[in-house]
Amino acid sequence: MPRLPLPPSLRVIERGWLNSNQVVMLAPRDNVLVDSGYCTHREETLGLLASRGGLDRQPLERLVNTHCHSDHMGGNAAIASAYGCSITIPAGEAKHVDPWTPQSAWMEEFDQRADPFHFDDTIAAGDTFEGGGFEWQAHAAPGHDMDALMFFEASNRILISGDALWENGMGFVWPEEGVNPYIAAAREALATIERLDPAVVIPGHGEPFADAKGAISRVHERLEAFDRDPSKNARHVVKSMFVFALLDKEMMPVDEVAAYVGRVPCYARLSQRFLGLEPKPLADWLLADLERAGAVAIDGGLARPTMAA
Ligand SMILES: [Zn+2]
User: Fold this and answer.
1) Which protein residues have a CB closer than 5 Å to ligand 1 (ion)?
2) Helix or strand or coil: residue 101?
3) Distance 300 CA to ligand 1 centre (A)
4) Cα-to-centroid distance, 163 and ligand 1 (Å)
5) Is the separation of the CB atoms in 200 and 156 below 8 Å?
6) Ligand 1 midpoint to CA 204 (Å)
7) Which pLDDT tens digit goes with each residue over 19-35?
8) What confidence tens digit (pLDDT) does each residue in 235-265 have?
9) Enclosing H/E stretch for 107
10) Residue 290 pLDDT more than 60?
11) Residue 77: pLDDT above 80?
12) Residue 283 Cα to ligand 1 middle (Å)
């Protein structure tokens, strides 16, 4: 499939589902990077960043995050120490990373990791920054992360959407009984995208794509279904979190999955509220469902993820 034409000063390093994509914006003495991947893949991220498809061994002046989840800011510390760049985070995320706690960006709750980092300044909706010779406007992108931002370049109508919109979905939205403020917020972010009418969307995961309208309507359909049935949403979140954990660990013995979902708080919390399953039946359902969907392969007593990290 031919890649969408992007201005030559923009480079997208496409990663997988454990690591967010990296967007490199090239301008003399003012190179900017958006999002840094997951911490355990920091060496791979640094290699890709230095390569010809990235900075091509040029310096990096600034790193900007769309949001502070572990797959988008986990590489911040390694990149800042390799390049001496400054770090800019969404203003609303500052409270999650300063002070840095075991819970920063949900890590204890979800069994994720990130290297602690120091940020230099913040950016809020309505602010702009220079990148690749263009001006990028920050827009609120709440829902998956209530403090997330997305970045829009008006002359080429390019949107860096983070996890607010992918070609086939978006980052999971937390389930709630009754009126769900996260789903309402996600719909607001989609309305903003519709209004911006991007010609190209560079998502946090997956390849850049042109059909924003199609992607938005697919997400609306899913949000409708999640709104009607919070337990469907809870099942989706449990599966997403577990696949992420498998991508991080690369594999897990099948007979340890029940202990794992019993130990990591988010699974019990979701199951108690929405699914009513004890760890063992939860683990059995999870593995069977993910194997049937082709997201996990089970072989020799080991569960492995099938998608790219
Ligand atoms: Zn993400």
Assistant:
1) 20, 71, 163, 204
2) coil
3) 30
4) 5
5) yes
6) 6
7) 999 999 999 999 999 99
8) 999 999 999 999 999 999 999 999 999 999 9
9) helix 107-110
10) yes
11) yes
12) 24
